[in-house]
Design brief:
Largest sheet: 6 strands, antiparallel, barrel
Strand order of the largest sheet: 1-2-4-7-6-5
Mean pLDDT: 83
Radius of gyration: 16 Å
Order of helices and strands: HEEEEEEE
Number of helices: 1
Low-confidence stretches: 2-8
Length: 122
């Protein structure tokens, strides 16, 4: 997973960090042995607890069919510190809620933090 550069002015970095008012963990899908010669998918935590900020991107919920069931989805945006290892297909867990990472701005020059575009299944 590519990490964003942390080369920004220290005072600006401190100001951004002060706006990250919650904490979260990043989870990544991993294949593990199922004990019968095959593999199973599981989610493992990447690193420790990090500061974050979450806010709704859209106020309306969208419903879609997933695995034969109708699921409601909410769009969110989030922010985590530069240098956080996170990318599409990862999950962010905060406050007992799980969000799927759809996209990030990792690699965009001049970004003061990593912006995450998230989706929450209800």
């Amino acid at each position: 997973m590519r990490q964003a550069s942390t080369a920004i002015a220290p005072t600006f970095a401190a100001e951004i960090a002060a706006t990250l008012d919650a904490t979260c963990v990043i989870q990544r899908r991993t294949l593990v042995s199922d004990g019968a010669g095959g593999s199973a998918e599981t989610w493992v935590q990447v690193g420790g607890t990090i500061p974050c900020r979450l806010f709704t991107a859209r106020q309306q919920a969208v419903s879609e069919e997933r695995g034969g069931a109708l699921t409601s989805l909410l769009s969110w945006q989030g922010a985590v510190p530069l240098g956080t290892s996170v990318g599409p297909q990862d999950r962010l867990v905060s406050g007992g809620r799980t969000y799927e990472v759809l996209q990030t701005n990792v690699g965009e020059n001049g970004a003061p933090c990593i912006t995450l575009y998230l989706q929450q299944s209800l």
